[in-house]
Design brief:
The protein is an all-alpha fold. 67% of the residues lie in helices and 0% in strands.
Amino acid sequence: MANILEGIVDALKDRLEVSYLFLKPVLKKEAPDYLHIIKRPMDLSTIKDKARKMEYKNRNEFRHDMWQIAYNAHLYNDGRNPGIPPLADQLLEICDFLLMEKQDSLSEAEAGI
């Protein structure tokens, strides 16, 4: 399971035109009020770390963290930075496509947990 999910994160990271803003946690110097607004920060490096540590028991937990990136992007940036939320939505769409591509392998891995 961990290898499959890490592979998905790597594929998402490779699409820099979409993923570049979501690779690492948001820094306080970039957005001083971010943690006042966003209560559950999430980024691709955190997701990959969680996958590596086998913290995900199924694809839904992984997908929820991916969704969290998009949710946070909308919550913080809607009306502020209108170019960012569509990138997060696109990242989630690509993730869903990759999850669908790996559906059989994921089902096998989940059955073994």
